[in-house]
Design goal:
The protein is of the alpha+beta class and 171 residues long. The chain is built from two helices and ten strands; from the N terminus they run αβββββββββαβ. Strands 1-4-5-6-7-8-9-10 form an eight-stranded antiparallel β-barrel. The longest helix is centred in the N-terminal third of the chain and has 20 residues. The radius of gyration is 23 Å and the shape is extended.
Length: 171
């Protein structure tokens, strides 16, 4: 009888250890890409922007623009220089963008796949690919005016597409 009692207590201790370890917070941040449990909804503070040019042959080159709104930049953590506020609208999102010294503007992000959106902004239609998404960080590839260029190739004779990698932080 003592042996059965000892085995029962040992099993109870093992079960309690397993239950406690399953409550860990190890899956709070997803460091390897998009996660269905993490939403892009919320306020995001731009940390950096780096521009590239994609050519039809698959080569990529740095953009090196001299225009202020397109040049490669890094911002202090949580600076109010560039803030994007994303609000869920069904499967899609509305993005209110505030840049220091400019009038705020709004765009619509239409979901096209798990981690891709089509962004309507003024007369351009951009492709957004979410490369990394955690509770605290989001990295996007923003393919500028992608759909117009991809369909007509009339803007640039060589078929190039401008792309910017944006990194954002969220408090």
């Amino acid at each position: 009888m003592k042996t059965l009692k000892f085995i029962g207590i040992a099993l109870l201790i093992v079960l309690m250890c397993v239950a406690i370890s399953s409550c860990s917070k190890s899956d709070d941040d997803n460091n390897g890409g998009g996660s269905s449990s993490v939403s892009i909804e919320g306020t995001w503070y731009m940390k950096s922007q780096i521009g590239y040019v994609y050519f039809p042959d698959g080569t990529i080159e740095p953009h090196n623009s001299t225009k202020e709104d397109e040049e490669d930049r890094t911002f202090p953590d949580y600076a109010d220089d560039r803030i994007w506020e994303l609000t869920k609208n069904g499967e899609d999102f509305t993005c209110k963008t505030t840049w220091k010294g400019r009038k705020p503007f709004t765009s619509t992000w239409i979901k096209t796949s798990t981690n891709e959106y089509k962004c309507t902004e003024g007369s351009s239609i951009n492709k957004i690919v979410i490369k990394t998404l955690t509770n605290k960080q989001m990295v996007l590839e923003w393919h500028d005016n992608f759909y117009k260029k991809a369909q007509t190739r009339t803007i640039y004779n060589d078929g190039r597409i401008y792309m910017v990698v944006y990194t954002f932080l969220r408090k």
